[in-house]
Amino acid sequence: MTDDLRWRRGTEFPGHDYRIFRTHAVDASHPQTGATHRFSLLSSGDWVNVIALTPDDRVVLLRQWRAGTDTVGIEIPGGLVDPGEAPLAAAARELEEETGYRAPTWRPLGRVAPNPAIQTNWLHTFLALDATPTGNLHPDAGEVLAVETATLAEVAAMLRDGRIEHALVTVAFAHLHLACDGGLRRPPA
């Protein structure tokens, strides 16, 4: 059945490079009729996000402005995986750069395609356990970040009432919810 749905990719057409993503198009043939259709794509490196829990199970959160919505949102640390970097290494780097926290124990929570209709990358979500502040905060030049913590119950309330509205942050907590068999809590060892 899957082969009946898979289009055959053909010619790729270059677009523009915008530093964090590249536009391009690809022609692909319909699997049943053979007709060709041009698809517009956004290519980017993979992304990571991190749910960091302190030893007393507080979640490390960020408040930061987002140009797309012109709002200050509540998020978790995350960012681009650098070329040649493993997603886990990127997650640890982003946690420390954006929050000044480090964690000794890491678990992968899941991977999703942010928008498979037009994007070529993946988002990897990690759980960082027993995160503690180091003071080594190094945000990127385009970031102004406010670091705070909240209990898991407070985060659940923020998700319910819409204070956390970033889709990729919401999916990270959905991964944690599933890892904990239906709750937002520290998963069993």
Written description of the protein model:
- The chain is α+β, with helices and mostly antiparallel strands and 189 residues long.
- It folds into 2 domains: 2-43, no CATH class; 47-179, Nucleoside Triphosphate Pyrophosphohydrolase (Alpha-Beta Complex), CATH 3.90.79.
- Helices cover 21% and strands 40% of the residues.
- It has 4 helices and 12 strands.
- It has helices spanning 2-5, 87-99, 152-161, 167-179; strands at 8-17, 22-29, 36-43, 47-53, 58-66, 71-75, 78-80, 101-102, 105-112, 123-129, 132-133, 145-151.
- The strands form 4 sheets. Strands 7-4-10-9 form a 4-stranded mixed beta sheet, with helices on both faces.
- The mean pLDDT is 93.
